[in-house]
Design goal:
Mean pLDDT: 81
Order of helices and strands: HHEEEEEEEHEEEHEEE
Radius of gyration: 17 Å
Largest sheet: 13 strands, antiparallel
Distance between the termini: 37 Å
Strand content: over 45%
Structural class: mainly beta
Strand order of the largest sheet: 7-6-5-4-3-2-1-13-12-11-10-9-8
Number of helices: 4
Number of domains: 1
């Protein structure tokens, strides 16, 4: 897996906590999510945020996020694009969306979708989680579903990359900490995020200042990878490091910083702006 692909996946995961895409320019994926929405409009927390990503001291990307979260469910959208130095060398963006509900055992996606554009090439991925086995619809189709592809068993009891972080936030809110595993399927790749708590640290970004829980998320690929895209040993040797803070009331945890050592110099994502309206999510 190339470093830019890994960071795209991490950015999709970051989008978990936030974001809903609304407006006249909504895509077909957005309309499908709207029809599947399970957010209770009476008790909605609305969140808007912007994150910057950088390599060393150079800005390489922006992530804009908005969210609608209630006691019954969540709906989220993010937009990720190259910026700063990276925009001189690549024309790339991703729009990711999810609609889900709060189930008895954790947060459960209903529909997940993302559209990735690189130059003139565009691919749309939609994953339906309503049935026991997650089903993906991809246009244009992937040339390969991986070696081996994700089996029916691999796609059972899984969540999408965005809901993975929603579920982590829920565990934090309920005092379970950053522990256990998150089984993720993104429409092709199936992997686990193995979590472990490291400790607490004082964090200062443009969007947040205070104490944060430091969490390691180890990326463990399972199936759905082509040989040329399989993460290298160097990429798997180090975890994604997350700094999680209760920035939405006392229980709503969001990442205020993320760091991965993938790629030259590693990549850091930091919260730059945060706006919250309505009651804190519970």
């Amino acid at each position: 897996m190339r470093a830019d692909g890994l960071m795209a996946g991490l950015a999709l995961g970051l989008a978990t906590f936030l974001g809903v895409f609304v407006g006249d320019s909504a895509s077909a994926g957005s309309r499908a999510l709207a029809s599947a929405s399970v957010v209770d409009p009476a008790q909605v927390t609305q969140i808007s945020a912007r994150y910057d990503s950088s390599v060393l001291i150079f800005k390489v990307g922006e992530i804009t996020l908005n969210a609608r979260i209630s006691e019954t469910g969540y709906r989220a959208d993010s937009f990720i694009e190259a910026a700063g130095l990276a925009s001189l060398f690549t024309d790339f963006d991703i729009r990711a969306e999810v609609s889900g509900r709060d189930g008895p055992g954790g947060r459960e996606p209903v529909v997940y979708a993302h559209t990735e554009r690189t130059g003139t090439k565009v691919r749309a991925v939609r994953v339906d989680f309503a049935a026991e086995i997650a089903q993906s619809d991809v246009e244009p189709p992937f040339g390969s579903l991986g070696v081996p592809p994700a089996s029916d068993s691999d796609r059972t009891g899984v969540i999408d990359p965005m809901t993975a972080f929603f579920e982590l936030s829920r565990r934090m809110e309920h005092g379970e900490g950053c522990e256990g595993r998150l089984p993720v399927f993104d429409g092709k790749a199936r992997y686990d995020l193995r979590l472990e708590t490291v400790g607490t640290q004082r964090v200062r970004t443009r969007g947040w200042r205070g104490d944060a829980l430091v969490c390691h998320a180890w990326y463990e690929p399972i199936s759905g990878y082509d040989p040329e895209d399989y993460p290298s040993e160097a990429e798997l040797r180090h975890p994604l490091v997350l700094w999680l803070a209760p920035v939405v009331g006392e229980g709503g945890y969001l990442p205020v910083r993320l760091h991965t050592r993938a790629g030259f110099g590693g990549v850091t994502i930091e919260l730059m702006r945060l706006d919250v309206a309505g009651p804190a999510p519970t």
